[in-house]
Design brief:
Largest sheet: 7 strands, mixed
Strand order of the largest sheet: 7-6-8-9-11-10-17
Shape: globular
Structural class: alpha/beta
Radius of gyration: 28 Å
Distance between the termini: 65 Å
Helix content: 40-55%
Length: 635
């Protein structure tokens, strides 16, 4: 990596002779593969933008020129070229380098991103601010064909096309989001890549007219000037032209000379320009090129074989997919919906068995929810499998199109709670809060693998809007002897000393969802301690139903307990504990000493789930220590 070692800033890059840039790109790919194989991360998308990123930093002057990256998981090359290469050993680790753009990390990261389809709108804002200030720097939005399935991109293009100043949108077209792209936009871009009619017709007409006596040369020049008209008739790139953008492309995204030439020309155009760049996701690593979806986000792996270093265990996503497939075999009205996350949400087996009943709508969560409402109103039973943080993008559609109508839509919320290495933009710590205040919404949280399957069946049979939230990672099995699911009912795992008459402190530990595992472990640690001549024996309750609340349980617990502790992997504000306390206050129920183990009013940074639970005091040791300290202090 001799060339890469010489590049620690965009200025270093600009000083390199042009002939060394292909060698730099090769070095960057080797570095990415070796580094991500150790830390995990987003690999295929970054391998695909090596030449594009090198060209951007060759032509433009970052940080003066503003580059806004869509989603941001393809910014590893950008980070390497802007002085952060040495930090990759702690990529996506607690206290380490973020896997996404972060303004706190570098002046070259102008806009924090993590969700799709945002870069054009942000860039329009930067461009308008520049114009108000009378400045002259460039503003570049890098978006993707996957992001083009999100409506926000077109809102940004619609507004940005009215600018009378420089705005450059680079459309990185690799035919992929996480899964393979779907829909009309994808078909349009495919046609723009492959349709030879424009180039062939232009060449044929020019050749014929050039050989025509007298008027040939003149007419040939005229035809050359009308190439935009020919393109508007024959090539679907006109969609961008009609929105006010000068369309240029497609450009080979792995040809540095072409990229640098095109970007060098458009930087001086004083109107909006869209440069369509065609890249290959996973470029330069055979395993990633062959399976870009698998190598979109990876754990540590063996470079020689492309195989993960750890054995993958059954996840909650897998359990959900298997359960839904079984239910669909029994009920032909059950359909599944995903927003470009068929594999990630466990729907692959469902799609294989029921291809006509599985709908991938692309990266368009708001559309997905209203689409589900339409399916439901037409008599189907749609289940929308979606990550918690991505569901946030469809808040109004859930409220307006599902809840107001009482539509029979099931939201299967994956990646709820702490997600880990992807950081603030991906933690699923808000779904209990923003769903629980919606009238008519039922919110359930399974504690383990069997309960997830049982709750999914219950939700489909219940009718009306139902949300089931479950975490990322290994599915826990049989944390308790499960009772049938009932609406608005929790489950007592053990009553402990709740019914005893002695003076030993009485404790109730209420767990939401898979926090039951933490509750069991923390209570296990407490049973070795003695207080007032007896062994601590807390009651453990599996909350199950976040909404509606189990009001009988609240009254019961308030009567016997000296201490109540609630464990939930959600922010406190609007969460289960807040609803519990609010219900008690509204109904004149006096609560004993009460504590919520939940996340504070802040955005939770990246780190492994275990590290983050410890950091915020939600691991079993911290819970047990807090309870014991309270008992010794107040009992």
């Amino acid at each position: 990596m001799k060339i890469l070692n010489k590049v620690n800033s965009p200025q270093d890059l600009k000083r390199l002779p042009r002939k060394y840039l292909p060698h730099l790109c090769a070095d960057i790919r080797r570095f990415l593969i070796q580094s991500v194989s150790k830390t995990g991360g987003h690999l295929a998308s970054n391998l695909g933008v090596v030449e594009l990123t090198v060209a951007l930093h060759t032509v433009f002057n970052s940080p003066r020129d503003i580059i806004v990256w869509d989603v941001g998981h393809q910014t590893y090359v950008h980070k390497i070229l802007t002085g952060r290469k040495a930090l990759f050993a702690k990529l996506r680790k607690l206290g380490g380098l973020s896997g996404f753009p972060k303004a706190r990390e570098s002046s070259h990261d102008h806009f924090d991103t993590g969700h799709s389809s945002t870069s054009v709108s942000a860039a329009v804002g930067y461009a308008k601010a520049r114009d108000l200030d009378g400045a002259a720097h460039n503003v570049i939005a890098v978006t993707g064909d996957g992001s083009m399935t999100g409506g926000l991109v077109f809102e940004g293009l619609n507004d940005g096309g009215r600018l009378n100043s420089n705005l450059i949108v680079v459309l990185n077209d690799n035919q992929m989001s996480i899964s393979e792209n779907v829909g009309a936009i994808s078909k349009t871009l495919n046609l723009m890549r492959s349709d030879p009619r424009y180039q062939d017709l232009k060449a044929d007409v020019k050749d014929i007219l050039t050989r025509t006596p007298l008027l040939g040369e003149t007419l040939a020049r005229a035809v050359e000037k009308t190439k935009d008209t020919i393109r508007s008739v024959l090539v679907p790139g006109q969609i961008f032209e009609e929105m006010g953008f000068t369309y240029i492309g497609p450009v080979d995204g792995h040809n540095l000379d072409d990229l640098i030439s095109v970007l060098g020309k458009v930087k001086n155009i004083t109107k909006p320009v869209l440069v369509h760049v065609h890249t290959v996701k996973g470029k330069g690593y055979s395993f990633a090129e062959a399976n870009p979806s698998k190598f979109h986000g990876v754990e540590s792996f063996d470079v020689e074989t492309g195989r993960p270093l750890s054995v993958r265990s059954e996840s909650y996503s897998d359990v959900f997919g298997e359960a839904l497939t079984q239910i669909a075999r029994e009920n032909p009205n059950v359909v599944a919906v995903t927003a470009a996350m068929e594999d990630g949400t466990g729907l692959a087996s469902f799609a294989n068995e029921f291809p006509r009943r599985c709908f991938d709508v692309g990266i368009a969560e708001a559309h997905a929810v209203t689409f589900c409402a339409g399916l439901a109103k037409a008599g189907k039973l749609p289940v929308f499998a979606v990550y918690s943080s991505f569901l946030q993008r469809s808040y109004d559609q859930i409220m307006h199109d599902v809840c107001i109508q009482g539509a029979n839509v099931v939201l299967a919320i994956d990646r709820a709670g702490v997600v880990g290495a992807d950081g603030e933009t991906h933690q699923g710590l808000f779904d209990l809060s923003y769903l629980s205040h919606m009238p008519g919404m039922t919110v359930l949280a399974p504690a383990d693998k069997p309960e997830l399957g049982a709750m999914l069946r219950f939700a489909i049979e219940l009718g009306g809007p139902v949300a089931i939230r479950y975490p990322r990672g290994e599915a826990k099995t049989h944390l308790h002897e499960a009772n049938p699911i009932e609406l608005g009912k929790s489950e007592w795992i053990t009553r402990g000393n709740a019914d005893a008459e002695d003076g030993i402190p009485k404790i109730a530990v209420i767990a939401v969802g898979t926090m039951l595992h933490t509750a069991n472990n923390s209570v296990g640690k407490l049973t070795q301690y003695h207080c007032k001549g007896g062994t601590l024996s807390p009651a453990i309750i599996n909350a199950r139903s976040v909404k509606p609340l189990d009001v009988e349980m609240i009254s019961d617990v308030a009567k016997f307990a000296d201490f109540i502790y609630i464990l939930e992997d959600n922010v406190f504000s609007g969460g289960y504990a807040a609803s519990f306390a609010a219900y008690a206050a509204r109904n004149g129920i006096a609560l004993p000493r009460f504590h919520s183990f939940s996340f504070p009013d802040e955005f939770v940074v990246q780190g492994s789930p275990e590290e983050l639970y410890r950091k915020y005091g939600l691991d079993a040791d911290s819970v047990a220590a807090k309870i014991l300290n309270d008992v010794e202090k107040y009992a």
